[in-house]
Amino acid sequence: MTNKVSRTHLLYREAARLLLAMLPATTFLLTTSLGAAEPAAQVAAGDTVDVIVGGKAKAAIFVPARLLDDAEKNPENASIWRTLNAEENRRRLRESVKDFAAILERITGAPLEIIAGPPGAGEQRLPILIGELAVERFGQPAEKFPYEQGFRLNVSPQAIGVGGESDLATSYGLYTLLDQLGCRWYIPSPLGEVLPQQKTVGWPAQDVSTGPYTIYRGIWYCDNDFARRNRLGGMQLSAGHALEGSVPKTLREEHPEVRAIIDGKPHPRKLKWTHPLVAAALADATLAAIEKDPDLKSRSLSPDDGIGWDESDDTTYDAGDLDESTGVVSKTDRLMVLARRVAESVGKTHPEVKFGVLAYVDYTRPPVREKVHPAVVPQIAPITFSRAHPMTDQGEPNNAALRYLVETWGKKAPAVSYYFYCFYLAEVSSPNPMIRKWSVDVPFAYEHGSCRYWQPETLANFETCMHALYLGMRLGWDPAQSPEAIFQELHQQFYGAAAEPMAGYWHHIDDVWVDTPEYAGCGYGHLRRWTPEQLKTARDWLDQAAAACRTDAEQARVQLAADSFDAFADFMQMRRDLAEGKFAGLDQKAEAYRERMNELGESHQAQYAFAKMPWTGDRTLNVRYFDGFYKATYLDAARIARDFDIVTRPPLRQWRYQADQEKQGEAAHWEQPDLDDAAWKTTDPVVDTWSSLGLHNYMGSVWYRTSTDLPQWKPGEKLHLWLSATDGRAKLFVNGKLVPYVDEKGESADSFSGYCKPASFDITDAVKQGEKNQITLLCTREFINELGVGGLLGPVVIYRETAK
């Protein structure tokens, strides 16, 4: 089934539904493609076939006996929804049937009996036929879908049939019927369930053959109930970092020529992708995996995570295409050589196997010379691109490149997988619904990017990214839907009486992200985005929502958002305290924040919220990121406030700066006090990132200069200059004199190198009393830690150490 046929089918289905609603009462049967119901099933257009009337069941569910066999000894597995395994999907359908009946009972109060086998001769109830029982009555689905995911829904006064090409497809059919009733699951757990409450339930007469638009739809963290109900699953593309691990160590030992040359030396693990022996080894590994698992459908050829590949033989296959987001030549052509060789070798006997290959870091861009083998599925993982602004935002420095790679991969590959990121960069506590970004980017991927696998990287973060997660699942099923309508329904259904203020809250949060021209990663642009005024507006919306709630469920849903926002407000208060030099107590505030985030993760595990995942242990990902990027600065700031006298109040925040793209600054002595820097621009590194200074992709050096008066100090006292955080290497000059950095071991160097770590320099011998002291920093970004950041990442202070 081609993209065009599938999309046309989905659009037809929607048009047919609307047509049915508009037609006058007459004999009409909704059908698609070649589908046809049995002649006796014709009914008046708009007529509803009821299964429960006035709280009493008029129907019963009839299933093949095999579905209920050995049910107690074969529970549903935790990852059942991610597989095409026949037995796992038998269990999935079994649980779907039970869930279908239970949901109808929760809607109406009436239980529906589930019976093994077909209806008996004297059965008076309307039969709801499942699986092969439906196929025997109504026939196969009229249209086949990849990996047997097509199903057929028949609703008539004589019988209702839900039959599919597979048990998985039949499960989709059951939840499609529930979807038609308005049943929704916005987040995991009962808190996310929204069901209509009525005593009579039925469906319009229909004969629909359909299926999902994508071959696979998935998110990383949710439970089986949530996945089944949102029709997740299919053929999951294997595209994880696996290439080097699939090549045996013996090959490297026996043929050292396959080792990648990096920094002039053979690497112990990385390989020359274009060496024929590497392709042969990967093909052999794939064939061995197929022999072990004949049902294997996909195999990954994605390299290890990170950057830095062979600098010798493989470079001859590069096309010279510059990846501006990483500042290096794209490596995609050389990787496609490897992928094509493996696919051709395995395809001789197993042409059905698909090879997932990440389009990632410096091999994100599409190939220039090499063709993409039809069995190779690129999985676009735009890790070096903005995660906050829609790809149509012309202000974002790399958006033109992002649109190019999505469109060009879509033209070069028959099917593409999308690994969009449903969270912000290295700071996931901030609420970020991605309403406008995913409303633009996800449809763009379907329209222009041959998207057939929806496999985003997600977290347990429904408290911050519910909108994007839900939109991705809905559009993965049917991209013809309107994102605006999906969000409008979400607000109305999920928040009920609080819908209007909660819509105001989420759109305000989204506006802050999108309308602020800040494109850096991590939390270093937050002070530009999240001003006290913006936070107050958000809090006002939440207060209005809390006052509007009428039910416990509405209150709990609003409170989930409020808990998330309040914790983030604490995070931002620490950022402001640091910026303003209010260092005392930052260690205590940091610990209280950590405890709160861990507690929220524990208490909301059922909602898969607050970045609590199985592998995070006793520290949620929120806390892990906080510890990695912020904690050291706060602890050290509190230490300085407790043990020393800070003599620069407020902190040093106003600097003149100049990028040194030609690397001329040191030779020209830009560190000297008498340098005329009047033409240099000014910056406050507490608020400004390199991205906001127009240096988003810049890999190089920036000079910072400022001056300050210092109070008198006593003989024997020492003065230290403290950098709260940097990205890269920092070299300090005071009054033109180089001040070495001395680490905790007492070892001296001419500069400090670190990321998100504080550093103190003893400047006693360089400063002067009673005079203006000139301070110069030479900051060099050595590699990409996060997007658009470099140099100073916070305030600078000078503190006095009293002689003992």
Set down the secondary structure blueprint.
Layout: H1 3-22, E1 27-28, E2 43-44, E3 48-53, E4 56-57, E5 59-63, H2 65-68, H3 86-108, E6 114-116, E7 126-130, H4 132-138, E8 151-155, E9 160-164, H5 167-181, E10 184-185, E11 193-194, E12 201-204, E13 206-210, E14 216-217, H6 224-229, E15 233-234, H7 243-246, H8 249-254, E16 259-262, E17 265-271, H9 276-292, E18 298-300, E19 322-323, E20 328-329, H10 332-347, E21 354-359, E22 376-380, H11 399-412, E23 416-418, H12 435-448, E24 451-454, H13 462-477, H14 483-495, H15 499-515, H16 526-529, H17 532-548, H18 552-579, H19 586-603, H20 621-643, E25 645-646, E26 655-659, E27 681-683, E28 701-709, E29 718-723, E30 726-734, E31 737-739, E32 741-742, E33 748-749, E34 752-755, E35 759-762, E36 772-780, E37 791-792, E38 796-801
Parallel strand pairs: 5-6, 5-7, 7-9, 14-24, 18-21, 21-22, 22-23, 23-24
Antiparallel strand pairs: 1-2, 3-4, 3-12, 8-9, 8-13, 10-11, 14-15, 16-17, 19-20, 25-38, 26-27, 26-28, 28-36, 29-35, 29-38, 30-31, 30-34, 30-36, 30-37, 32-33
Helix pairs in contact: 3-5, 9-10, 12-13, 13-14, 14-15, 15-17, 17-18, 18-19, 19-20
